Amino acid sequence: MINILTKGSALMIGQKLKYLRQREKLTQGELAEKLNISRGTYAHYELGKRNPDYETLNKIANFYNVSTDFILGRSYAESSEVKDAFDPLEELKQYLIDNNMQDMDLSFYDLNSWKDLTREDIEEIKNHFEWVREKAKKRKDD
Length: 142
Known about the structure:
- By secondary structure, this protein is an all-alpha fold.
- The chain folds into 2 domains: 7-72, lambda repressor-like DNA-binding domains (434 Repressor (Amino-terminal Domain)); 88-141, no CATH class.
- The protein is built from 7 helices and no strands.
- α2 crosses α3 (39-47).
- It is elongated, with a radius of gyration of 19 Å.
């Protein structure tokens, strides 16, 4: 197999991967688990010692919602689509509306502290809501 990526490009890819991972406040181990690869393999990507294969590169791009071109350094734009910056409060608000919970009183929370939540954090909150909903349904059915 011919590797078209040079050592210099591998280092650049590694820097992008590290930037994206740290932006989402993940450890190498956490991200490797989500990608179903070893932490050591992922660490080699960040260090520029290895390049991700095509499938892994796509998994990484999909996870971060960026283009593979951004990771490979062929584009400065993170996505080929125009997208707004992630706003966790707007994401939660939309989830509450979508699930007919828009009248829920959240005034006892310091919502400003929620502005630092990542996409993964929001997904955990949604999963928790689903878990509570299923638990209540089961209790009602028993």
